[in-house]
Write a structure and sequence with these properties.
With 228 residues, this protein is an alpha/beta fold. It has one domain (5-225): P-loop containing nucleotide triphosphate hydrolases (Rossmann fold, 3-Layer(aba) Sandwich), CATH 3.40.50.300. It contains nine helices and eight strands. The protein has helices at residues 16-27, 35-48, 55-63, 93-103, 106-120, 132-136, 150-163, 170-186, 208-225, and strands spanning 5-9, 30-33, 67-71, 77-81, 84-85, 125-129, 142-147, 199-202. Strands 2-6-1-7-8 form a five-stranded parallel sheet. It is globular, with a radius of gyration of 17 Å. The protein starts with a strand and ends with a helix. The chain binds 2'-deoxycytidine-5'-monophosphate (DC). 2'-deoxycytidine-5'-monophosphate binds next to α2, α4 and α8.
Length: 228
């Protein structure tokens, strides 16, 4: 329906993916989950038993890896690692614990960002991540920075993980998210930060549908007013 690029950034558990997926569907845009790409590399590293403290091992692994993102039947992304569908595996708690170490590596980021820009080059994309508005698509027509309190984000992730059958305490989920926030925010290359021209959405007391609605209304109003 519209042909714009929308960047949605924010920390883990803020509700980015759900919002991005819903917005893409309602506006007829393509949805890309960039976190899934860093997760896929991490999953391969776990399978190969690499040492995540050694940048060279992570870089070598990444340059020998092919990641593809395809649209699933439910509008979510299906992630292929060297041709194999790893959509479920990349959500494993073992990946959560290591993915920030992969994502802070500059060479890995350069490779992922090049692929993300290529995907977005045709336009009509909703892309979610940490550095989309600041680095991947600085010229995006719309930029949103989505956040919620640490407690609320941990609670959402805890519900998600237990629903998938993982035995994990809410306290541990909170610790893991807080550690990931710290690494993602303090890293040297493309840290998690809101773009200067991003619109903030605090999702702490909002449902997923309300977040989606806020974004869709804003985008439609700007398009109608000719300010997009
Ligand atoms: O959104 P997520 O939880 O699936 O992201 C997984 C990790 O990848 C997260 O710790 C930060 C990193 N990431 C990133 O550095 N840049 C992105 N554009 C997307 C994710």
């Amino acid at each position: 329906m519209v042909h714009v690029n929308i960047a949605i950034d924010g920390p883990a558990g803020a509700g980015k993916s759900t919002a991005a997926k819903g917005v893409a569907k309602r506006l007829g845009l393509k949805y890309i989950d960039t976190g899934a790409m860093y997760r896929a590399i991490t999953w391969k590293g776990i399978l190969k038993g690499i040492d995540f403290e050694k940048s060279r091992e992570i870089e070598l692994l990444t340059s020998n890896t092919v990641i593809n993102i395809k649209k699933g039947s439910d509008d979510s992304n299906r992630i292929y690692l060297d041709g194999v569908d790893v959509t479920t595996e990349i959500r494993d708690p073992s990946v959560n614990r290591k993915v920030s170490l992969v994502a802070k590596n500059q060479q890995v980021r350069d490779m992922m960002v090049a692929q993300q820009r290529e995907i977005a080059s045709g336009g009509g994309i909703v892309m979610d991540g940490r550095d989309i508005g600041t680095h991947v698509l600085p010229g995006a027509h719309f930029k949103f920075f989505i956040n919620a309190t640490l407690e609320e984000r941990a609670h959402r992730r805890y519900l998600e993980l237990t629903k998938q059958g993982h035995e994990i305490s809410e306290e541990d989920v909170q610790k893991e998210i807080s550690m990931r926030d710290k690494i993602d925010t303090e890293r040297e290359f493309s840290p998690l930060v809101a773009a200067k021209d991003a619109i903030f959405v605090d999702t702490t007391n909002l449902t997923a549908r309300e977040v989606e609605e806020k974004i869709v209304i804003h985008v439609k109003e700007c398009i109608q007013a000719g300010t997009a």
